[in-house]
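Q: Sequence in, structure out?
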Amino acid sequence: MKSDIKKYTFKQGLPQEFELVGIGQLYNDHSDTLTIAHRTGFYHILWFQKGSPTHLVDFNPVKIKPNTILFLNKDTVQRFDKKGGFDGKAILFTDSFFCKTETDTKFLRSSILFNDLFSVSQIQMHKTASLFSDLFQLMETELENEKDISQSDILKNLLHNFLLLSERERRK
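A: Exactly. Output:
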């Protein structure tokens, strides 16, 4: 069965292996690929803002409520809901983007967001939604800037803050 699951690598040609995408647009453009079980060699942070899809993660159905953030480790098998009708935002990134130091690697490997052995990490957004939205907006704005020597570090630091806040929420 494992050999039947297609594995995708990160999109080529970007300034760094970090991308922000609209889930609705991604689904519209690639639903034929996304609705078949697949594996990716990069991390996903999926913020489902509208709709209540069932996302298949490692062959387990995960029911999503509106305004939920889902954290998927690299190499996780996933499948988007064939019914569609959902939208949101996604942060996609690789080890080579985030792990600049041994401390970065240790953080990512030990984070409950990507390494919970008992369940898929998800956060239901309530009072903190505006804070996450602000961080997301800062990342979008930085990506719109012309690439310079600081851009990758700024994006990584914003992502790190996003992950730290997410861990705090998850632990609640």
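The longest strand covers residues 43-50.
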